[in-house]
Amino acid sequence: MRRTIIWIGALIVGGVLGMLGIGWLDQLMNFVATVYTRLFQLLAVPTIILAVVTTFATFGSKGYGKIFGRTLTYTLLTTLAAAAVGAMLYMLVAPGNLPPDAISQGSETMETPQLSYYEHFISVIPNNIVKPILEGNVLSLLLLAFAVGIGLSKLPESENKAVVVKGLLGLQELLFLLIRALIWTLPLGIVAFSAQLSAQVSAGVMAQSIGKYVLVILGGNLIQFFVVLPLFLFARGLNPFHVMGRMMPAVLTAFFTKSSAATLPVTMETAEERLGIRQGVARFVLPLCTTINMNGCAAFILVTSLFVMQNGGTPITLATILLWMVISVVSAVGNAGVPMGCYFLTLSLMSGIGAPVAILGIILPIYTIIDMIETAENVWSDSCVAAMVNQGVK
User: Fold this and answer.
1) d(Cα 190, Cα 283) in Å, to the nearest integer?
2) pLDDT (tens digit per residue) in 43-81
């Protein structure tokens, strides 16, 4: 409770500092925010690798099929629910078309990526050990970690195996010590992140919002965050207020870093130490969820795709909405938990069907705010899935 109060206080202080509009202070806050973001990214890669490897090596692969099955089930259900909420709000609010001159202005800010789906899937398969680590390719790292962890679990008991496993566990203990130290200093980072956001809003970043579209995106995220996910917890006999209160440090960190992968160290430490999720469950489920459980991304892909296609002259029928619900869920599951990952994935999808991607240039100035809310929702969903799996698997 004390930590949460300190974090909220830091949030308020940062907001006030950002609204002052002092140049040197804004630069200082940007510097501090960048330092914390880089530190989170630094710890994210070893956290993913060591969490998965040590879990399999220590507990073995036996029994994890059930945990994986439950994780995948809850992930698909919550992601599908997020897309469904977005679809219903889109039909209810019915955003209108943008004027042609606004679309032409948006085209000036666009840079269409050339990465195809074939290249995306091929890039997941690592051809050396170093490249995925340097690039922070989460899917490749998971493949490597699963292979090494399962391999260690299958090795016969020997002194060599014991030395390797103990060494990995020692590295993980050191890593979590560094994570706890970073969390201890995080109020300073929150002040900087909050000041950075406040300065952007004061400078008019939100002034270019496009009304009903933004209402659908943000409304869908808030409904998923405060209504749908708590109902999932309640259905499993868990207290949503207790889970949310315990996981709030991770959710706030995700809000400011805009990266569920970078937030993973905090999410794991918070889940184990504050929420009481068993170590074996937390260190298996959370790295997996960071990669495949993207509630906010599914809603963004669906709503944005419908909005862009509608402005391109495509009739938005029920069949179109249902088709793109499936596409958005599948795409979100394969998306990387990095800043602006959903944005560029949506851009690729729209480029592939010849839709007017210039509209995404209009969305770009306000995507920072959308990305922060979506990432917080993603980490909150990861926490809910981990809590439900922990409660259901004995």
Assistant:
1) 26
2) 767 876 787 787 777 665 555 678 888 998 999 999 999
